[in-house]
Each structure stands twice: as structure tokens, then as C-alpha cells.
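sry for the spam today, last one i promise. C-alpha cells for design, 473 residues
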């Protein structure tokens, strides 16, 4: 038995690390802020303070008392509890509430958050392994970059969204299998689970699934027109099956929403852009405070991507069409996130109240897969590109600070000068394949991991906490 466990750990060590590293980063941030049991703080900020934890408590009460899940008399004059479940409480991890006492519901919330954070990293690491046929420390590093991106760190208190963030790479991997192998089961099951656990974020994933299907099909040169039509038909069938599977929650939720203020939302009449190009680009830098309620868009997933994206774009080992299509989709996502017409559609034909760019995790996903492909095929890139890219971004940062085009904290400037300089030098040495170049490559990936780990702690500390004792009283 010990031998089997040891062999399993050896075979899955990079997945285990991908789970443990984000988990520990969040744990350290919580310990530093005095989260219970090492203090009297809790992580349930903003809406999770006065909505999600009470919903957790009500769900726990219903399960333990075998009460109906359809309706509750414990909110106002009564409420449709099935609709509450559809948006807030459909995660399978919520069954952990059964082993927690009522006085520790907030702590159960914290544990579920930590688990989902780790699982999101594992999910992206698995996507990389299967999509790029690579399994080494790089999958751990990029998995941590996904799990500790500014979207997940800033918006992670919306714990009900995180199931879809975990499942999203599986949906994309399912599309890859469907296009290249004609197998749609992973796509169908993953999408159905997305819709069941949180239909709101799943709506955005459904939109992007259509886009990503076209990306994968256009980049698969061996596919014939007949196969292309077959794959499209399979995609439609599995999509309908996924939606049908979730209909038990979707249909009553749709009727409930029609009777709410959300049902009267109307399309905007005037075109509006939210942020300047300078502000959007500055959101890519490391140690920019994540948005957790209002502010700029959460775009950060690692400052190394500022260099890896140019490496991807000029890489001769990657087909020009592949580069063009993926970059076009990425730029299109930026336009969508920054334009009121398109963001209205992406948010389910509704303008969100705070928390801008609720689908920026898709943009982060695109950056990471392009960055990873550029990283793995670096030999097709000119040796001077990393240094040139780092120099250009440093010049851009200096210009933004000098001109006032974007507000950047002094510590952000210092950290990014150090990181971009280090990445530029290390990557150039690797590209030149100097003596002991593998040592410099390993040092670069370790630095990327340290940056992601540090940002996770920083971002969660910036989010803040609440007084647990006052809350329970």
C-alpha cells in the first residue's frame, strides 16, 4: 500500500505542488491578517459577509433538518430557495457544511475557498499537460499563475464563481479533444457541471466556447470540410445536452429572473469605453492591487507574460496563422471588456453592479496559453527579443509614471523594474544557450513561481478581512 501511494505521489507530484502552492499562499495571507483560529478575523468580505455566509447557514440548516430546498421562510417574508441554490449554493464542495457546526460556517467558507483555489491551479496544469503534451515543473508554475491571477485573488470571495473557474480549462480541453479526436464527452460533462454550479459565469464560458471552437478548428490544418461539419454538429449536440442537464435549475431560475429588476434591463444606446489603453496595459504589471469591487479590470497573471507574448508573436516555430488568430481573439476580449455594448452582452444582457470585467479570467487564460506555447518553442524566436521586450515595457512604465497616463504605486514600479530586468536577462541567457543555460532556465521558473506566490499573499491582504466575533454576535 505504501508503495502504491509513493508511486501515485511521484506520478502526480507536479499536480500536488500546483494545489499546495496557491493553497499555502492564501493560508499565509490569512494567517498574517489574524484569520481564525489565530485571531478574530474572517475572509467573508463585501457580499459574502451579508449574503453568502447566511445562505451557507440556511443550506446547512436545511440539510441537517431535512427541510425543503425549494423555499425558505428565513429571509424577509419568504423566498424561492431553489433559485438561491442555482446561483450561490450548487457547488459539490458545499457538502462540507455537514461536518461543520453552525458556529463555524464562516470557517467552512474559508476552507472551501482554499480548496477551490488549489483545484483551479490543478485544472489549468492538467490542461497544459494534455494540450501541449508536457509534464514537468512548468505545468506547476503556469497552474499557479492561473490560480493566483488577479481575477481569482480579487474576486475569489465570490466563492460560487470559482467552480466555473476550476472547470473552465476542462471545457477548453474538451473542445480540443472534440476538434482533434472527435470526442466530446469531456466538453459536454464539464460544461454541464459549469452550468449546474453557476449559470452566470457559465453563460460567459458558453459564449467563449463558440469562439474557441472556431480557433481550434481554424488552427487544425488536417481537418477536412466534412469533418469540420461533423465536429460542429457534435459541439451543438453536446452543448444542448449540457444545457438540458442543467434545466432542472435553469428553467425555474429563468422564471424567477423575469420577475426581478434584472428582467427589465435594456441595451445601451451610446457607445462607451471604460478605460484608456495605458490603464489597461498597466493592469498587466505585477503587484498592481487587484480589484475586488470597483476599479480597473483584473488582467494580471504574471509579469513574465509581458515578455512571453512577444516571444509567441515572433516565433517562427509557431504557424503565423496560429499566432494571428489567438492574438486577434485576445485583443477582441480586451475590446469586449472595455466597451459597454459588448460587456452588456457578455454579462448576460445585463450591466453588473460593481466587479467590472467578470469574464477577464478568459483573457488571462488566453495570455497563459500563448505564453506557455511561446516558452516551450523559444528556439524559433530571435535571441534579442526578451531583452527588447523587457526594455520596451520598462520604457512604457516610465512613460506612464512621468505623463500621469495611469496611476502606479511606487512599490509597483520598483518591483516591476526588478522583475522585468531579471526576466529579460535570464531569458536572453537561455535563448543564447550559454554555459549552464539550464540553471538560468530553472532560476527563471523559480522566480516566476515566487512572484505568483508573493502576489497571491499581497492581493489577499489588500482585499482585507472582517471581524468574525462581531459578525457572529
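last one done:
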Amino acid at each position: 500500500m505504501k508503495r502504491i501511494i509513493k508511486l501515485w505521489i511521484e506520478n502526480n507530484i507536479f499536480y500536488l505542488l500546483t494545489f499546495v502552492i496557491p493553497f499555502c499562499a492564501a493560508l499565509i495571507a490569512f494567517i498574517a491578517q489574524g484569520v481564525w483560529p489565530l485571531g478574530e478575523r474572517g475572509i467573508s468580505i463585501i457580499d459574502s459577509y451579508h449574503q453568502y455566509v447566511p445562505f451557507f447557514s440556511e443550506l446547512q440548516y436545511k440539510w441537517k433538518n431535512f427541510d425543503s430546498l425549494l423555499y425558505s421562510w428565513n429571509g424577509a417574508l419568504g423566498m424561492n430557495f431553489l433559485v438561491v441554490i442555482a446561483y450561490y449554493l450548487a457547488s459539490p464542495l458545499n457538502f462540507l457544511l455537514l461536518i461543520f457546526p453552525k458556529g463555524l460556517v464562516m470557517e467552512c467558507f474559508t476552507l472551501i475557498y482554499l480548496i477551490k483555489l488549489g483545484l483551479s491551479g490543478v485544472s489549468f496544469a492538467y490542461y497544459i499537460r494534455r494540450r501541449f503534451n508536457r509534464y514537468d515543473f512548468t505545468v506547476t508554475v503556469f497552474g499557479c499563475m492561473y490560480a493566483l491571477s488577479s481575477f481569482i485573488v480579487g474576486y475569489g470571495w465570490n466563492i460560487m464563481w470559482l467552480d466555473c473557474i476550476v472547470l473552465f480549462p476542462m471545457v477548453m480541453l474538451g473542445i480540443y479533444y472534440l476538434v482533434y479526436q472527435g470526442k466530446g464527452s469531456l466538453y459536454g460533462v464539464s460544461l454541464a457541471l459549469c452550468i449546474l454550479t453557476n449559470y452566470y459565469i457559465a453563460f460567459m464560458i458558453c459564449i467563449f466556447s463558440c469562439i474557441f471552437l472556431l480557433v481550434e478548428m481554424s488552427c487544425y490544418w488536417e481537418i477536412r470540410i466534412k469533418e469540420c461539419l461533423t465536429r460542429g454538429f457534435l459541439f451543438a449536440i453536446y452543448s444542448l445536452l449540457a444545457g438540458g442537464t442543467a434545466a432542472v435549475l435553469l428553467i425555474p431560475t429563468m422564471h424567477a429572473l423575469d420577475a426581478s429588476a434584472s428582467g427589465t434591463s435594456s441595451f445601451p444606446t451610446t457607445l462607451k469605453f471604460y478605460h484608456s489603453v495605458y490603464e489597461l496595459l498597466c493592469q498587466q504589471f505585477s503587484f498592481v492591487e487587484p480589484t475586488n469591487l470597483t476599479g480597473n479590470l483584473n488582467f494580471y497573471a504574471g509579469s513574465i507574460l509581458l515578455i512571453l507574448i512577444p516571444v509567441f508573436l515572433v516565433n517562427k516555430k509557431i504557424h503565423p496563422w496560429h499566432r494571428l488568430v489567438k492574438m486577434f481573439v485576445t485583443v477582441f476580449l480586451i475590446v469586449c471588456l472595455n466597451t459597454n455594448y459588448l460587456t452588456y452582452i457578455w454579462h448576460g444582457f445585463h450591466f453588473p453592479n460593481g466587479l467590472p470585467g467578470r469574464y477577464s479570467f478568459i483573457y488571462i487564460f488566453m495570455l497563459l496559453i500563448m505564453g506557455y506555447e511561446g516558452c516551450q518553442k523559444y528556439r524559433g524566436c530571435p535571441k534579442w527579443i526578451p531583452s527588447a521586450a523587457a526594455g520596451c515595457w520598462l520604457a512604457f512604465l516610465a512613460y506612464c509614471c512621468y505623463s500621469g497616463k495611469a496611476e502606479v504605486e511606487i512599490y509597483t514600479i520598483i518591483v516591476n523594474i526588478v522583475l522585468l530586468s531579471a526576466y529579460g536577462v535570464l531569458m536572453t541567457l537561455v535563448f543564447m544557450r550559454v554555459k549552464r543555460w539550464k540553471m538560468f532556465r530553472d532560476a527563471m521558473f523559480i522566480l516566476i513561481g515566487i512572484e505568483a506566490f508573493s502576489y497571491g499573499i499581497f492581493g489577499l491582504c489588500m482585499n482585507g478581512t472582517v471581524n468574525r466575533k462581531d459578525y457572529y454576535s
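Residues 105-132 form the longest helix (28 residues). ok im logging off now
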